[in-house]
Structure formats: C-alpha cells, structure tokens
C-alpha cells in the first residue's frame, strides 16, 4: 500500500528524525524556517511567497536525499542492468506538488505552511516550471521517468540542461509573441550540480592515422575545440516507494585547458570569447515541434549530451569493475527519437578508439545496447544532416558512419541481390540533391529494437517510412503505445476526482490503474453520478477563474467545455475546430432561433516562432473569439477563449475541466498523442479521428462512448493519391463556402480582408491536411455531441466510462512493456 510508510515515519521522528528527514508537520515547519534562515537569509517577517516556496522546496529535497542516495548506492551494489533514457527534451512541469504527492507529504506540508500563515496552493504557484521540451515527446519522457521510479526500475534520464526552456507565449493584439523563459533566474532548488562529474566533448578538426604500441594501425580524432559537460542531477521520486532515481542534465562549460592555452599566448579576450561560445551549446531549447532543421548548434547539442551520457556510463562501468565487453549487459540505452541517434556512432568511437575493441566486438555491443523509438511519420520531420556540416563538426563520426554503411549495404545486397534502388533507399547517406546523413537510418541499423508509439503508428512505420528496414529485420519491430502518469495528471491535477476515487476504489488506483474499471459498477447509482458531475463542475469553475484572470473572458461552468490544447500545427487542425465554431456563429446570425446547448470553446498551444501558418491560426482563433464574445446576439450560447502560454502547469487545470476533448488530426499524421489520454482519464469524451492512440482509446471505451468522424488513414492516402481538390468540397457545400467567405471578408478582423487571406487560400487551394474534406463529417459529428450533452445523465455515464476504461493508458503499462520486451530490465526494491 502506498504511503504505509507514514506510520513508521512518525516513529522515526520519535526516535530522533531531524529537521532534514522528519515527516510530520511540526518538523516540516521547523525545516522551512531553518531554510528561510540558513539558505535564504530571511526572517519570516520579510519572507515573500517565493521565499517560502524555495524554503519548502529545499526542505522537501532534504527529505528526498536519503532515498536518492540509497537508491544510487543500491544500484551500484547490486550491479543490475540500468535503463538509460536519452532524450533531448524532458518537459517536467513543476516539481514541488508532485514530490509532495509521491512522498505522501501533502497534508503535512499544508499544515506546516498554515501554521506559518501561508497557503500551500499560493506557494506551489510560485514555482517556475522547467519547460525543457516542446510538447508530447518531452512530456512523454517525463512521464516515463515517473513510472520508472514508481515501478522501482533502475533507470537514469540523460538530457540537456537548457538555460532557456520553451519560450513563454504572450498574446498581443491576437498574435503570439515570444519571451525567453528564464526558469533558472530565481535559482533551482531541485538540482544538485556535480562539477566533478564532467567530460570532455571534442569538436571539429580532423582525423589521422597512427600506429599504436602493439603495431596496429588506428585512427584518432584531432579536434579543433574541446568543451566540458557538467552534470546537474535532479531527483525523480517514485510514488509510494523509496526509489528515487536521477535525471542527469548536462551543461556546457569552457574546457580550462583551452582557456589556458589562450591565456598563455596573452590573448585574454579570445579566451573569454571561446568560453562564451562553448557555453552557448546549452543556452536554449530549439522551439520546433516536428520539422527538422539543419542547424549546426542543434547538432552540437545532440552530440554534446550524447557523448557526456555515454562517457558517464563507461565511468559507472569502470567504477563497478565491469568489463567493457559486458557493456550491453549493464546498460540499455533508449533513443527518444533520432535526436540522440549520433550515440550509435559515438559508442562505436568510444569502444574502438578509446577502449581498443575491434570493430565486430564493438558493433555487437552497440546493437545490443540501443533501442530506437520513432515519434513521427511526417517526412519533413525525419532528421538529416548536410554532409559538409556533419564532416566539419564530427569528422571521426563520419568515417565511422561510412564504415557502418559499407558493411550494412553489403548485408542488404546479400539479402536482396540486384536491387540497387533498395540499396540507395536504405543507405545511411542520402544522395538526392545535397548529400545528407540520415539519422533515422543510423538509429535503425544501430538498434536491436525499433518501436512506434501507438498501434496504428507502428503499422504505418512498417508500411511506409521504415518499410525497407522492416523487410530486412522484421524481428526488430514492435509497438509500445504511449502512456501518461496518473499521478501528475489525475491525482495531482484533479484533487476532487482523486478524493472520489480513493473513497470508491481505495488508495491503490494510482499504481494499479486497471482498477478504474470498478467505477463501472457505480454507473447506475444516481447519487454517484451526481457527485461525479459536482467534481467536474468545480474543476470547470476553477478553470473559468483562471481564464478570467488571464484573458478577461468570463465562462459559465454550466456550459459544455470543448477544449483543444496542444502545439499549433496544420496537421492537428485547430482550423477545422474554428470552421465549426464559425459555422455555429453563422447559423445563429442567420437563424436567431437556431438552438443548441451553449458551449465554451477553449484553445491553448504554442506555435513554432517561424511557423507562419500556425501563427496565423492563433491570430484567427483570437479574432473569432473577440468577435463572438462581443456579440450580444450570440454570446449567450457561444464563447471562445485562447488560454495563453499552455504549459504543464496550466494543463493541470485544463484537462480536469474538459467535457469534450478535441483530437481531430488528419488520420495517419499524429503518431500517438498523449493529451488525448489525459483528457480521457479526467472524464472527458473525445471527438476524434482514427489517428494515433485515438484508435486504441475508442477500442477500450467502445464506439458508443466516442465521437468518431473523418477519413481513415487509408482513405486519406487514397484521396491524396487520386489528386485531392479542396475546391470540389467548397463547391458542393454552401455552408462551408459561406464560412470561408466570412473569414476571408475581414468580418473577424475589423474589415481587414488581407490578414486571413493566406489561411483561406491555403485551405481552398491546396489544403494539405484535408480540412475541407473532413469538414461536413466533423460538423455532423458535433451535432451528435450537442444532442448527447442534452441528456446529462447519459453524458455522465459516458464520462465515467471514459475514465473507467482508461487504465491501459497509464505510463506504468508502457514502461513495463519497454522493460520486459526491449530492455530486459528487472526491478530493484529500495529500502531506506
Ligand atoms: O511525440 C509524442 C506523440 O504523442 C505525438 O503524436 C508526436 O507528434 C510527438 C522534433 C518532435 N513527434 N516528433 C516530435 C519533437 C521535437 C522535435 O525537435 C520532433 N514530437 C512528436 C510522444 O510520442
């Protein structure tokens, strides 16, 4: 049972637990005062809420410390296999609330702060969130760390300590503007810098041949520059267990030896300049979700964190006295998309150039070590690096990749004789136009396991972008449907529902999410349904307050809350949602008696700063919102709001407040989605296409509890193959035509008919994501939603069923599958 420890911990206090470890509210209160005084230099009389946040965070980190150290010590003693999750992004969200939850300390912390005249919720709100990711991929990594710790798996997350995370979004005159995210400016109480855990990262230069002591011919890399990577560790506490794993993020610093060289030649300013250039490597997260961009700094970031992480594994292996030949028995390394895939060449370099292994031994180890998760089918998102850039930055790796490729293509030729087209397609080097290094191919060749992130996505991978690799190595392929942590996204985000679940199911559901099924036995109980509705209503009021505070827009919690929050992207089709809203608006304006249950439409999400169309979609959402919200003829039934700066923090307010979850991507384009799962677990119904994990959500919940519309992935491919013409759909649908004309006319933009012309032309002339082709089906499906909402008792039943059948989408299930089927990992209980 989680948190059974609470009882013994009071005993510990009686037997002398101190201000750093004690778990009851009185000791916690003392610990907060202690940190205010000794760590912050403040007396309570002058302490701000932000000071209290920091003092409490430090007090809680102290309480993690013995678990954290004991966990590392146990892994080291036991020498069991360690899973290393390599990811360029970890979108963690605020730590304090989650750590209190996982330690079972929420009540004690609340009491301690109340005794100090402070409100815990206000204090929690002071935490700036570490936004070290763009969206789903980075958040998935964070959910997986939570599950790894909770399931007591020996694991470490490796990534980049960006000084600036994902930009903060502000809306000015309806447009997105970006502010740098200075998340470290107030200090970070969660991390511990380990300057003694540091590695050299080479850079540029050339390679040369030499003869080693045994007379063998070898190659070595003579770099142009060297920087250092310093470890910063953050504790990842499991829920209800003593396991506390580590997230190790690397920060770049100038390598001293190189500074000294410049100092010695007297060029002080050149030395300082080199130092600054070194440190830019980890300055900022690239704010791009999906499209790959051939930027030198991005390649530098990838190589930087990957080499530090692999060197760290070698250090751990050496400390444990393990043999280098046993590397793959000690470490399972998962590549979170291709961003860390340079690791394949880097591990080869380390094993051959630095540890003296021969090629075949090194290759066997490398393939046994790596697994590769693909997160997207969008062709423009598959990472490639221009060959000249790659050679300039990583000359030794290019040689290694050529050799991997030579041997690999021999294997392809042996399996598929006389098929030179296949050889060209599969090569690690793309030859079309400017030569490129294809990182997805490197990841496939260098990994024993390759997986997609939802059943449909994994099938499409095998049939499309990776079909040649599937033909060669079918046994490497599997599916691992994504999951989300029910701790942060249910227990922490939705305290009202958590209390109801605890009371109805007992306390174990957060670690055994299948137990949600038992809710179904309460569906026919009107009193239970009434309580379910009351929880949702309170969550909607909480969100309405937030929206009013941040936008001035007033929402009524009795209305249907229809929500789409995710990155802004054409394939996610926020504009399809908008076309529906404008359709309702137009109907109301044309037929004032037109009747439907009042709805509040909420949007949230960031656009990549350079993504012209996505930014214009945000402007259109805000323009439509402004017009509709100000129109007394319609605003008794329609409201639209754009919630600025969608983040993990405000997501925790948004998911629990949704009645309807919009998952309306063009089928075949969204690899999985994870927001879809967070909504479902919080009792929202989904309107969606057969895309990504929606397919499996609908399988779980039953067709009668899911609003399905739109073309399937096959139909999308067929339509596009036949030559899709959006004009045909426009011509055949007067209502759609009128909607497009209204948007184009300047009605929502104060008469300016230019501002949305690019969007209208995009949709009417090319419509790459079939918005117009799915429009009629979407509007019809939305009418079904309105009809269903009219029967509140039936809607509540469907809401309960959505939550009850969401157990599959716990990240615990996903992580157990990775551990068993890809990593060969055993759990290791930790005892403090
Ligand atoms: O990964 C998520 C999935 O649930 C989403 O469907 C998928 O779109 C998302 C380059 C990406 N795919 N690719 C990225 C992110 C950053 C970047 O620089 C690509 N993100 C996804 C988790 O599986």
From TrEMBL:
Entry EC no(s)? 2.4.1.1
Cofactor(s) the protein requires to work: pyridoxal 5'-phosphate
Has keyword Glycosyltransferase?
yes
Q: Which GO terms describe its molecular function?
A: glycogen phosphorylase activity; pyridoxal phosphate binding
> In the UniProt record, does the keyword Thylakoid occur?
no
| The entry's keywords | Carbohydrate metabolism, Glycogen metabolism, Glycosyltransferase, Pyridoxal phosphate, Transferase
* Top-level taxon of origin: Bacteria
A Pfam match is Phosphorylase
Q: Where does the record place the modification N6-(pyridoxal phosphate)lysine?
A: 678
Q: Which reaction does it catalyse?
A: [(1->4)-alpha-D-glucosyl](n) + phosphate = [(1->4)-alpha-D-glucosyl](n-1) + alpha-D-glucose 1-phosphate
CDD domains (UniProt xref):
GT35_Glycogen_Phosphorylase
Q: Which GO terms describe its biological process?
A: glycogen catabolic process
Q: Which InterPro entries match?
A: Glycg_phsphrylas (IPR011833), Glyco_trans_35 (IPR000811), Pyridoxal_P_attach_site (IPR035090)
The Gene Ontology CC terms held by the record are: cytoplasm
Question: What functional role does this protein have?
Answer: Phosphorylase is an important allosteric enzyme in carbohydrate metabolism. Enzymes from different sources differ in their regulatory mechanisms and in their natural substrates. However, all known phosphorylases share catalytic and structural properties.
Family to which the UniProt record says this protein belongs:
Belongs to the glycogen phosphorylase family.
In Swiss-Prot or TrEMBL terms, this protein is called Alpha-1,4 glucan phosphorylase
């Amino acid at each position: 049972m989680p948190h059974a420890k609470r009882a013994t911990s009071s005993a510990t206090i009686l037997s002398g637990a101190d201000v750093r470890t004690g778990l009851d509210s009185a000791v916690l209160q003392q610990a907060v005062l202690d940190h205010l005084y000794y760590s912050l230099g403040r007396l309570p009389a002058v302490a701000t809420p932000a000071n209290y946040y920091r003092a409490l965070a430090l007090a809680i980190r102290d309480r993690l410390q013995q678990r954290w150290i004991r966990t590392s010590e146990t892994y080291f003693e036991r020498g069991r296999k360690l899973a290393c999750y390599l990811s360029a992004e970890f979108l963690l969200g605020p730590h304090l609330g989650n750590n209190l939850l996982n330690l079972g300390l929420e009540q004690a912390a609340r009491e301690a702060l109340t005794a100090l005249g402070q409100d815990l919720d206000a204090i929690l709100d002071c935490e700036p969130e570490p936004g070290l990711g763009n969206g789903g991929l980075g958040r998935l990594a964070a959910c997986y760390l939570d599950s790894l710790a909770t399931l007591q798996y020996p694991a470490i997350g490796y990534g980049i300590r960006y000084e600036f995370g994902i930009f903060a979004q502000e809306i000015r005159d309806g447009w997105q503007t970006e502010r740098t995210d200075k998340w470290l400016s107030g200090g970070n109480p969660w991390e511990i810098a380990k300057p003694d855990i540091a590695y050299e990262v080479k850079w540029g230069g050339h390679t040369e041949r030499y003869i080693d002591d045994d007379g063998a011919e070898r190659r070595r890399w003579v770099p142009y520059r060297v920087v250092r990577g310093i470890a910063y560790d953050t504790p990842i506490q499991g829920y209800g267990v003593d396991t506390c794993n580590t997230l190790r993020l690397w920060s770049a610093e100038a390598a001293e030896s190189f500074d000294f060289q410049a100092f010695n030649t007297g060029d002080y300013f050149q030395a300082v300049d080199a130092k600054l250039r070194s440190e830019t490597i980890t300055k900022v997260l690239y704010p791009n979700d999906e499209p790959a961009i051939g930027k030198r700094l991005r390649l530098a970031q990838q190589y930087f964190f990957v080499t530090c992480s692999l060197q760290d594994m070698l250090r751990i292996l050496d400390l444990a006295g393990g043999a280098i030949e046993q590397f793959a028995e000690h470490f399972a390394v998962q590549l979170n998309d291709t961003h860390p895939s340079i690791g394949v060449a880097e591990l080869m370099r380390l094993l051959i150039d630095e540890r003296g292994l021969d090629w075949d031994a090194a290759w066997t180890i490398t393939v046994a070590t790596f697994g590769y998760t693909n997160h997207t089918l969008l062709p423009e998102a598959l990472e490639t690096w221009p060959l000249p850039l790659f050679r300039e930055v990583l000359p030794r790796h290019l040689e290694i990749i050529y050799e991997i490729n030579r041997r690999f293509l021999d294997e392809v030729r042996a399996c598929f004789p006389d098929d030179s087209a296949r050889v060209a397609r599969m090569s690690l080097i793309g030859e079309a136009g400017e030569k490129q290094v294809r990182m997805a191919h490197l990841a496939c060749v260098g990994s024993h396991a390759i997986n997609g992130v939802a059943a449909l996505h994994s099938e499409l991978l095998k049939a499309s972008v990776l079909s040649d690799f599937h033909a060669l190595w079918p046994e490497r392929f599997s599916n691992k449907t994504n999951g989300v942590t029910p701790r942060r996204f249910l227990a922490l985000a939705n305290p009202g529902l958590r209390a109801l679940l605890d009371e109805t199911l007992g306390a174990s559901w957060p670690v055994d999410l299948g137990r949600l099924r038992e809710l179904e036995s309460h569906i026919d109980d009107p009193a239970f349904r009434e309580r379910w509705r009351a929880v949702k209503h309170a969550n909607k009021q909480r969100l309405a307050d937030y929206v009013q505070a941040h936008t001035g827009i007033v929402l009524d919690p009795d209305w249907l809350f229809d929500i789409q929050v995710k990155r802004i992207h054409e394939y996610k089709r926020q504009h399809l949602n908008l076309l529906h809203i404008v359709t309702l608006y137009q109907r109301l304006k044309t037929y004032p008696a037109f009747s439907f249950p009042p709805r509040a439409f909420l949007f949230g999400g960031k656009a990549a700063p350079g993504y012209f169309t996505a930014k214009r979609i945000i402007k259109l959402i805000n323009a439509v919102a402004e017009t509709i919200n100000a129109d007394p003829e319609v605003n008794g039934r329609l409201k639209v709001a754009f919630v600025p700066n969608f983040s993990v923090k405000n997501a925790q307010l948004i998911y629990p407040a949704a009645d309807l979850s919009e998952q309306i991507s063009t089928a075949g384009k969204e690899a999985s989605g994870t927001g879809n799962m967070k909504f479902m677990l919080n009792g929202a119904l989904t309107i969606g296409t057969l895309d990504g994990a929606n397919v499996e959500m609908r399988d779980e919940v039953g067709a009668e509890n899911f609003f399905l519309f739109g073309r399937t992935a096959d139909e999308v491919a067929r339509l596009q193959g036949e030559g899709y013409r959006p004009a045909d759909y426009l011509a055949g649908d007067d209502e759609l035509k009128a909607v497009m004309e209204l948007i184009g006319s300047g009605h929502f933009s104060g008469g300016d008919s230019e501002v949305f012309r690019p969007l209208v032309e995009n949709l009417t002339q090319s419509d790459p994501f079939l918005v117009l082709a799915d429009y009629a089906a979407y509007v019809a499906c939305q009418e079904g939603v309105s009809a269903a909402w009219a029967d509140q008792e039936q809607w509540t039943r469907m809401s309960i069923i959505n939550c009850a059948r969401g157990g599959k989408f716990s990240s615990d299930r996903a992580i157990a599958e990775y551990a068993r089927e890809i990593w060969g990992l055993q759990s290791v209980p930790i005892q403090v």
